[in-house]
Write a structure and sequence with these properties.
By secondary structure, this protein is mainly β. The protein has helices at about 210-230, 245-250, 255-265; strands at about 5-15, 20-25, 35, 50-55, 65, 75-85, 90-95, 100-105, 115-125, 130, 150-160, 165-170, 170-175, 190-200, 205, 235, 270-275, 280. It has a 5-stranded antiparallel beta sheet with strand order 3-2-1-4-5, with no helix packed on it. Strands 8-7-6-9-10 form a 5-stranded antiparallel beta sheet, with no helix packed on it. The longest helix has 19 residues, at about 210-230. The radius of gyration is 28 Å and the shape is elongated.
Length: about 290
């Protein structure tokens, strides 16, 4: 059979002035054939020869074969360039004469001309090839990475319940859980993160911040800097009186990270803590002074 959106090896069955007809090997259906335009006919090819082609629809919505190499095939993810936009969607360069349609409903953010975006290729209800930015189910789960590796990827969707979905290397499925999000992330952002876990199904969990023992010093310095510059040396709350939201909004860290950094500051005698306040012991010294 002829497989829309895929590369296939077909056999030359007939030649006309405008092109050559190709059929699947051992096809029992005499009407199951597809045309390759004459301008793409390889030199020297003859009836009975085999030829690898890609099958898609032309501007008249007819099945057609091409020897041109598509930048994406059915069910795969690729990074494509936006060449035009309209009220109903956008059109992408995928290496073929007819641009690939990205419906508006399949966009996870507004796109503009020359944007490079990750999309998957699917067949819509009208049996046409289209692109989607909703690539969760199309990403691979067999990454070569191990826990604690640093990876780079693009955020393609954000959920209040689940977190930020990331395409690592524009190929592998990953997630930044909500409790690991401390900055304003948006769809289209490229991030570098650390792998915290690899699930049994191969999906990856990510953290934007380094491991706790690595960043305690940085967190401690941030706390001292903020106490010194924004609170004139005395913070009007402690880890016991502040809410997690208050700590996150003030210091861009979780309550546990805040407590660990306070322990470091106490150990180095940089702060004193009362039931309601945290005070810098030497407010006139530089924030990173011992």
């Amino acid at each position: 059979m002829l497989n829309l959106g895929e590369k296939q090896t077909l056999k030359v069955s007939k030649e006309e002035k405008f092109g050559i007809y190709l059929v699947p090997d051992n096809s029992a259906n005499p009407d199951e054939r597809i045309m390759l335009p004459i301008k793409q006919k390889p030199e020297g090819i003859k009836i009975g020869d085999s030829l690898e082609v890609f099958i898609y629809r032309d501007s008249a919505d007819r099945l057609i074969a091409t020897t041109n190499e598509p930048l994406i095939t059915l069910g795969k993810v690729a990074r494509l360039r936006v060449v035009s936009t309209s009220d109903i969607g956008a059109f992408l360069d995928w290496g073929l004469e007819k641009d690939l349609f990205l419906p508006f409903r399949e966009q996870t953010r507004p796109v503009k001309v020359d944007d490079q975006i990750n999309v998957a290729l699917y067949i819509d209800k009208s049996d046409r090839l289209c692109a989607t930015m909703k690539i969760y189910h199309y990403l691979a789960t067999n990454s070569p990475y191990l826990p604690n590796a640093n990876v780079t990827g693009e955020i393609y969707e954000i959920s209040k319940n689940f977190g930020a979905f990331v395409a690592v290397d524009n190929k592998y499925s990953a997630l930044i859980p909500p409790n690991e999000i401390y900055t304003n992330l948006k769809v289209g952002d490229t991030i570098t993160a650390r792998i915290t876990a690899i699930k049994p199904d191969g999906k990856i969990d990510l953290a934007l911040r380094p491991k706790a023992y690595i960043k305690i010093g940085d967190d401690a310095e941030r706390i001292i800097t903020i106490i010194s510059t924004k609170y004139d040396g005395t913070l009007p709350f402690t880890d016991k009186t502040a809410t997690p939201t208050q700590i996150r909004e003030t210091f861009n860290m979780s309550k546990n990270e805040f407590k660990r950094a306070l322990g470091n500051l106490l150990k180095t005698n940089k702060i004193t803590i009362t039931p309601t306040t945290i005070t810098q012991t030497n407010p006139h010294s530089p924030p990173n002074a011992d």
